[in-house]
Amino acid sequence: MRYEILGPLRLAEGGSTRLVGARKVEVLLAALLVRAGEPVGSDDLAKEIWGTRAPRQTQAALHVYVSQLRKALRPPGGGESPVVTARGGYTLRLGGDELDFALFQDLVRTGRAAQEDGRLSEACEAYEEGLGLWRGPALEELRDGAIVNGFACWAEQARLDCMERYAETGLELGRHREFIGYLYARIEELPLQESFYRRLMLALYRSGCRADALDVYRSARTVLVEELGLEPSAALQQLHHAVLVDAPELAAPR
């Protein structure tokens, strides 16, 4: 079975997917998954599930949800549940199961090692495969508590780094036209992220679309000024000037 948290929480097994059940049980599972293999205290789980509105019999209610989760995760034909009692709380043991975020991390590590070694095609493929695991914002509907929300913010930064590396290796491989659509989509998703404007300008310029590259700069400046009251960074301004003067250093690498 594979636990999938890079998007809405779900379980994948045998070519099909299923949900866990009630929202509070989902929150419980999400908190245990983001700390898989480590004990999570009952008090921390209660705060994650109820916040400041915990019921009077909190421990009893938590025990009910743990029992429901154990039933949902118990292997077919019996066997031990992956949720075990541990040090004043509970631990989820992955065992032979997979977690999509762990797979994502492995692919990013593979990509970074290949990129540092100059194996750009291999790096680009690893980054692309890792990004393909994402189905939307991580655990978007379950971010009410500190455990899940903290993880989700960290995971989104890891995804951003992977997206930037994917675009970087793609352009280094000379796949400029191929990445134009991808970079436009990333700007639509993350309009304040200057790195995608820079890469899109470069991809357009190297594809013979100099005027479009300048339009991207104007769009970036408008967004940054209106949303943040800031001018584009020095790096983006320098790239804009280089495009204006048709600087030779902008030529695509052989």
Task: Write up what this structure looks like.
- With 254 residues, the chain is α+β, with helices and mostly antiparallel strands.
- Among the domains are: 2-94, Arc Repressor Mutant, subunit A (Orthogonal Bundle), CATH 1.10.10.10; 175-254, Serine Threonine Protein Phosphatase 5, Tetratricopeptide repeat.
- Helix content is 59%, strand content 9%.
- It has ten helices and seven strands.
- The protein has helices spanning 23-34, 42-50, 58-73, 100-116, 120-131, 146-172, 176-189, 194-206, 210-228, 234-244, and strands at residues 2-4, 10-13, 16-18, 40-41, 83-86, 89-92, 98-99.
- The strands form two sheets. The protein has a four-stranded mixed β-sheet. Strands 4-6-5 form a three-stranded antiparallel β-sheet.
- α7 (176-189) runs antiparallel to α8 (194-206) and α9 packs antiparallel against α10 (234-244).
- The protein is elongated and about 70 Å long.
- The two termini are 45 Å apart.
- The mean pLDDT is 95.
